[in-house]
Specification:
This protein has 403 residues and is mainly beta. It has helices at residues 4-9, 11-30, 130-133, 387-398; strands spanning 35-49, 60-65, 86-88, 94-102, 106-112, 119-124, 137-143, 150-159, 170-174, 180-185, 191-198, 200-207, 214-220, 225-227, 230-232, 242-247, 254-262, 268-272, 278-279, 282-284, 295-299, 307-316, 328-333, 336-341, 351-358, 361-364, 370-371. The strands form 6 sheets. Strands 19-20-21-16-23-24 form a 6-stranded antiparallel sheet, with no helix packed on it. Strands 17, 18, 22, 25, 26 and 27 form a 6-stranded antiparallel sheet that branches. The longest helix is centred in the N-terminal third of the chain and has 20 residues, at 11-30. The chain starts with a helix and ends in a 5-residue tail after the last helix.
Length: 403
């Protein structure tokens, strides 16, 4: 018997679609830890002054695959061919770098400029399907003037699902150059306090038994105690649950999570956001209006007969979604963890359509994802895509599992 897709679209269409997906899947499976010979890809990055927001000109930018050159990476740059790892920023602080390709590898950008502390940022550009699932961009990197000064951080750590305070959470704080500058373990109150930290944008890495390891960024301001509250997502989870966790940078200060559910007829069932945080068991945990997040939306039992649209809205604050927010969404679906980064190509619009949930599958937005109006479904429950194609698509997306 012929495949249902062939019956509907013809044998030739089936053969072409099957060949393409098989080829992509085979190629991905072959690219595990080995370097692709003589392969490079283009990476965009912008460098700005953290205080003024203006572009930093003549900053040296170098890209390296994490772990290949290690801690002995020279101060002046990487030790491979200069034409494939360096770039110098223009008057707007922007540059493009052709980086050596390593399959399934996280990349690090190093930024140098006289008068500033060294900048450092990470991003993952997944194999050859990067252009499909995530733009080749590091986004906007802030440089801080090389000057003395300290500030304090304080807050609590909670469950991203129940909002309960968590004890015995171990966190390490890293500087922009990945040097450990602080650590703590939460006590019975689930709170922490760190004093006399160097100025700049730092990264928390927090762990607790039974929870996923989470990273979150925070800025230390001179002579100020900044409140930074953290959250962790439980490991595993019911196979029918979906959890969407949003984090972002300092600007814009207020991004909002929106989840809209539609029934099989395309009628809106609910719209969860800051003004209406719950519908049955599905909910938004909080509305963060002072930068960074996280904001977590939970669907406890994904309806197989519904379509869900998850999107981010720029409510207020300086900057834009695609130039300064560095917004990131982590999705836990049925125990698998996936990550999506906002496009950083400068496209204007206050909405970022992140994904849809259809038939229990994640369908990430790949084209025209920055919009001026509230996103609507682009797929339906009765999609013509065959199940085998949906299965393969999910397999490819699963390659982005954050481990």
């Amino acid at each position: 018997a012929s495949h249902p897709y062939a019956e509907e679209n013809g044998d030739r269409a089936y053969d072409e679609a099957h060949a393409v997906v098989t080829q992509i899947k085979s190629w991905l499976e072959s690219q595990t830890a080995d370097e692709m010979d003589e392969a490079t890809f283009e990476v965009g990055i912008k460098v700005i002054d953290a205080d003024t927001g203006e572009g930093v000109r003549n900053a040296l930018v170098a890209i390296e695959p994490l772990g290949t050159l290690g801690v002995d990476w020279p101060e002046a740059g990487c030790d491979t061919d200069e034409e494939t790892c360096y770039g110098t920023t223009d008057s707007d602080g922007a540059t493009t770098v052709n980086a050596d390709f390593f399959a399934s590898t996280e990349y690090v950008a190093h930024i140098y400029r006289d008068g500033y502390r060294r900048g450092r940022a990470r991003n993952s550009f997944y194999s050859g399907i990067t252009e499909i699932y995530s733009p080749n961009q590091f986004g906007t990197i802030e440089l801080y003037e090389d000057e003395a000064g300290t500030g304090d951080l304080a807050g609590d750590v909670r469950s991203g699902i129940t909002d309960e305070l968590l004890t015995e959470v171990s966190c390490i704080v890293y500087s922009q150059t990945d040097i450990q500058i602080g650590s703590f373990t939460t006590g019975v109150l689930g709170t922490y306090s760190l004093t006399d930290l160097p100025l700049g944008r730092h990264r928390f890495v927090c762990e607790k038994d039974g929870y996923q390891t989470q990273s979150q960024y925070a800025a230390v301001i001179q002579d100020v105690e900044t409140e930074v509250n953290l959250s962790l997502i439980p490991e595993g989870g019911d196979e029918n649950s979906a959890i969407m966790r949003l984090t972002w940078d300092a600007d814009p200060s207020d991004l909002d999570s929106h989840l809209i559910k539609y029934d099989a007829d395309g009628e809106e069932v609910y719209h969860i956001y800051y003004a209406d945080k719950t519908s049955g068991d599905d909910s938004l945990d909080l509305d963060d209006t002072t930068s960074y997040g996280p904001e977590t939306v939970t669907v406890f039992d994904v309806d197989p007969d519904a379509t869900y649209v998850y999107a981010i809205y720029h409510y207020s604050g300086d900057g834009t979604l695609t130039t300064t927010s560095e917004a990131m969404v982590q999705v836990n679906l049925g125990g698998g963890l996936y990550q999506y980064n906002v496009p950083s190509d400068g496209t204007s619009g206050r909405w970022w359509k992140v994904l849809e949930l259809v038939d229990g599958y994640i369908l990430p937005c790949n084209d025209d994802c920055i919009l001026d109006s509230e996103p609507t479904p682009t797929t339906s429950k009765h999609s013509s895509n065959p199940q085998w194609l949906q299965d393969m698509q999910r397999d490819l997306i699963a390659k982005e599992d954050l481990d």
